[in-house]
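Weekly sync notes, structure subgroup
Attendees: PM, AL, DS (notes)

Item 1: joint prediction request from the bench team. They want all two components modeled as one assembly rather than separately. Inputs as received:
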Amino acid sequence: MTYTQLAVVGVLVAVVLDLFVIRTGLVRRRAFWASYAIIFFFQLVTNGILTGLRIVRYDGSAIIGSTPTDAPPVFMGDGRIAYAPVEDLLFGFALVVLALSLWVYWGRKGVERTPYSGPPRILTSGAEADLRSGTGGK
Amino acid sequence: MSHLAYVAVLGFILVGSGWLELAMRTRVYSKWRRLLLSIIPVVLIFSMWDLYAIAQGHWSFDWAHVTGVVFPGGLPLDEVLFFIVVPIAAILTLEAVRSVKRWQIGDEPADQIRDGRRVGDA
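Output from the run, pasted for the record:
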């Protein structure tokens, strides 16, 4: 299989695992998508460094893009976003969904479930208001 | 550029996410058993994917920019470390979001959930 095909399979396997196998249902939660938005930004930065500096190189026949292994990648276009092949975004998504699902799974199983995270030491305005009102979240 | 280029990126990820443990009280590193149980399958599965991709020639590495420690099958240590560091950063992010927003992530018992929100800190 090509990297493109494997990346799509990887995402599907991770999502099916999350929804139907270990049933953590993370991809249905806003906490997941808010986290993923943050992770996505940093993935573009770090993956951009690794691929832009050509520390990792891709075979043009295994991905949507066609840049040869020994040629520098473009920043945008040719199937690439911030130097990295779009397949890397799928690869990263599968990696993150798997890791986070397992984290929730083990917590649900009772492995070091509590204490939960928080409250922040650096108080956000929202957290500060919650503490004052004692509501524990709006 | 040196052999530490790849691991420097990993160091950036560790530092860039690690402060959340203190500032947001994410309690991820302190739950190291749960962390290990969550990371080990990721390392195994994605290392196998990596080995297949290397064997198929999907990607390759600039040997001047990785540590030079290589597992059988041509898998650089740097890549295996990536599969450890990135899940830690992802879990820290999720727990930081929970810390600030107080949204549930799915490990809360049913009696602590009210109106889709977590109540009490058990």
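Discussion: The radius of gyration of chain B is 18 Å.
Action: AL to compare against the crosslinking data before next sync.
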